[in-house]
Amino acid sequence: VTFTVPPRAAALPDIERELARLLRSVGEAQAADAPPVMRALVANLVACAPTPEAAAEAAEILPQVIRRHPCRAILLSVRSEAPVGQPQAEVGLVCQEAGEANLCCEYIALSANAADEDLLAGAALPLLLADLPTFVWWLGDPPFGSTQFERLAEAADRLVVDSAGFANPLSALAELSMHAAVHQHRAPMCDLNWARLTPWRSLAASLFDPPDSRPLLNGLSVLELELGRPAPAEPVNPAAAFMFLGWLAGCLGWTLDKQPVKFQDGALAIRFRSGERPVAARIVLTPEAPSGRLRSVRLEAGHDGTPALFQVSRDYSHPRAVTRAAIGEAEPRVRVAHYEHRGRAELLAEDMQRLAGDEAYEAALGMAEAIRGLLKMEMYLPV
Amino acid sequence: MPELADNPLRHGLRADRTAPPNTVVIFGASGDLTKRKLVPALYNLALERLLPAEFAIVGFARREVGDEAFRRQMHEGINSFSRNRPADPAVWESFASGLYYHQANFTDLDGYRRLAEKLDEIDRARGTAGNRLFYLATPPDYFPDILANLGACGLTAQGQDGRGWSRVVIEKPFGRDLETARELNRQAHAVLDEAQIYRIDHYLGKETVQNILVLRFANGIFEPLWDRRYVDHVQITVSESVGVEGRAGFYETAGVIRDIIQNHMLQVMTLVAMEPPVAFEATAVRDEKVKVLRAIRHIEPDQVNRYTVRGQYGPGSANGKRVPGYRQEPGVAPGSVVETFAAFKFYVENWRWAGVPFYLRSGKRLPRRVTEVAIQFKQPPLALFDHDATAGLGPNVLAMRIQPDEGISLRFGSKVPGPAAQIRSVTMDFRYGALFGGEPPEAYERLLLDCMLGDSTLFARADEVETAWEIITKILEGWAASPPPDLPNYPAGSWGPEAADQFIEADGRAWRRP
């Protein structure tokens, strides 16, 4: 996905005028019988990229998001080569034909020298279109409490992070959880990593839809999650696994056994209790999934002496997942389900369809943080 | 029988509408509808992970076809007609493992007994939990036999012997007139409760048709204007650019009135005219729709020439090609007087709509394919600006386009920049496709899923169908008693007969050119 009008320099005070001029220029450059150019915007999206790598990623993703969810996208980034004193601006357009119109959305990139990072939020806020919801997407670990974060958070209707991309997953997860708990009155938080879990949750739930499986939920005793192993010298990012466990525990009313947990032999063992019954969970690292992504979920249960095994697994080389339910001696029920890769652009655009908070996420995040709290940090070494 | 909602893992899943374990039995499995619409829709649901692993389809038809050949036919259908094509090989393999064929005559009771045994076997093998959805996609002549035989074999019973739910979807046309619709309802009610019957009109599965209710009842600004005080009239247009396209056999017995007006258009009209329901659920919504149908002033047989117009297309051109007239189409009687165009003026006699005409028109071989509802508002009470200044100003119109380019537009007056007080109409245009990415599901996907979930909001109830037929049957009687106009009376590719223009112009109004 590319820009219709690639970003070009504009003076900060002239941004609105320059955007209007670009819009006119698209119309003037068209053939007489081409569809009329229209401006279509349903949201503000502010992307905060604290590093050059994050800025490059955001610059690539934002036009894709715009095409899926028409919005005014504003990229805030820090560039070492930016002059000190005032943020620099670029503006561009992303247009697409839709029916009988050529719909154009606006892109604004504001960059500043690291010394002026605190000026970016102030430059962005006047550019937010009134009466439209504002999404603030923080790439990387959010700097909770920083001036810039706080100013943007105040203006946001929704804060978006991706815990899969945290550089310091454990500490960032802790801060995320604390922020969500302390600032409940603020814009709801959403995590693209949680959105990635939606198909996993749905597929796992589907295993217990049949009437003969449902009672086995109360007999779950062993859980095993396979999680993508990180590159050497990189830390494990367990956020997805912790949130999945947190969700499952929350749905089934399990409590966390407050025993310290540690990574041992490439696996992390966590204990829950369902009433008096112990439930043993293990997170096992695997090279068959991208770092920090789930590869499979395996649930073992016993009910009235009948053993049962439920499994969801994803094949990352194909757009598919397999569910398998084996109850007692019966023929296992196997389903191959379509599971296409959804990049950050798709996840973000999908999340922008909703403004309400997600109680299930908040509960899962709380439990994930509780699990993290049990982790013996000194044992949690890079793999 | 536990419900899906009882599954604690389903709590908090966003927009979770996954079907419970079930088997869909399609009567008329060798027909076009199965191959083009139903199985592709079910495949798409599977692709979206909205069907459970415990799912099966049984195709029921007269032809000698085995499971494998049936699977091949359905695979071809998906590869040709699914919005997600070609089929993903692994997903197809998993989906196809639950596809079965059952050969039997629709009138042969023994075939249904064998079907019952087969369904029990499938329940055991695939965990489909005894939930069955029977889809009647046959010609309507078979509906009574199928319903009776399903009942005779106990297949319509629910909750007995570990059985789950049993539901029946009945395709249109639901009857040919009031009497046949009543008779079909009697036959259905002899073996089913009303809550088990899903009378399908795929128009109601279209996103933009459903959006009529959202536009009206989720927004504060439209509803206060939505009545006789502000609305001058309503126009509903369903125009098709195609001719009969191989459906001459059906069309010769139906005409546009049975094909489009009695079902699709009256359904859309009820959504436009209904009062706010007390809740967005099946009974409340359908209660309000029925009230609208009951409030429609009947066009008595001796009034048809005043309130209706009939037309039939002759030779003409469409999309730059010469096309034959209706009577020259294969399968059409050379002297056929079947209408391919009809226009109506209805009044809804209730407090909200008294005196507001609803103009409905539908036809084949019109210039373009479009379905829209246009609410035309009254002019301001005082002409404040002089006549010259407002020469380019039309009435305010809120148009809801259902297909294609689904969207909503609002026409209003604006000053032309400059020193003169020139005013002209401008249009504020909203298009779904532009603002909400992704392809919306096909109507059949939504409706099949609703059936499996037991949500009948978008299906017609017995009294709804009969009330609609009461209105239409009187018109049919009037048309039968009054000689048709000189047919054909409009060339293919035009907006219908001149009589239709004169019909609305007599009221000081004009058809929109959508």
Considering the chains and any ligands shown, give keywords for the structure.
heterodimer, A: 383 residues, alpha/beta, 9-stranded mixed sheet, 9 helices, 18 strands, disordered C terminus, B: 514 residues, 8-stranded mixed sheet, globular
Short description:
The complex is a heterodimer of chains A (383) and B (514). With 383 residues, chain A is an alpha/beta fold.
Give the secondary structure arrangement, pairings included:
The complex is a heterodimer of chains A (383) and B (514).
Chain A: E1 5-10, H1 15-29, E2 37-39, E3 44-49, H2 52-68, E4 72-78, E5 88-98, E6 101-112, H3 119-124, E7 134-138, H4 147-155, E8 158-161, H5 169-182, E9 189-191, H6 192-206, E10 220-228, H7 239-252, E11 255-256, E12 263-264, E13 267-274, E14 277-286, E15 294-303, E16 306-315, E17 320-327, E18 333-338, H8 344-351, H9 359-374
Parallel strand pairs in A: 2-6, 3-4, 3-7, 4-6, 7-8, 8-9, 10-14
Antiparallel strand pairs in A: 1-5, 5-6, 10-15, 11-13, 12-13, 13-14, 15-16, 16-17, 17-18
Helix pairs in contact in A: 2-8, 5-9, 6-7, 7-9
Chain B: E1 22-27, H1 32-47, E2 55-61, H2 67-81, H3 89-96, E3 99-103, H4 109-126, E4 132-136, H5 143-152, E5 166-170, H6 178-191, E6 197-199, H7 207-217, E7 231-239, H8 248-273, H9 282-295, H10 304-307, E8 308-311, E9 313-314, E10 316-318, E11 321-323, E12 341-347, E13 357-363, E14 370-377, E15 397-403, E16 407-415, E17 423-431, H11 432-435, H12 443-453, H13 462-481, E18 490-491, H14 498-505
Helix pairs in contact in B: 1-2, 1-12, 5-6, 6-13, 8-9, 8-13, 9-13
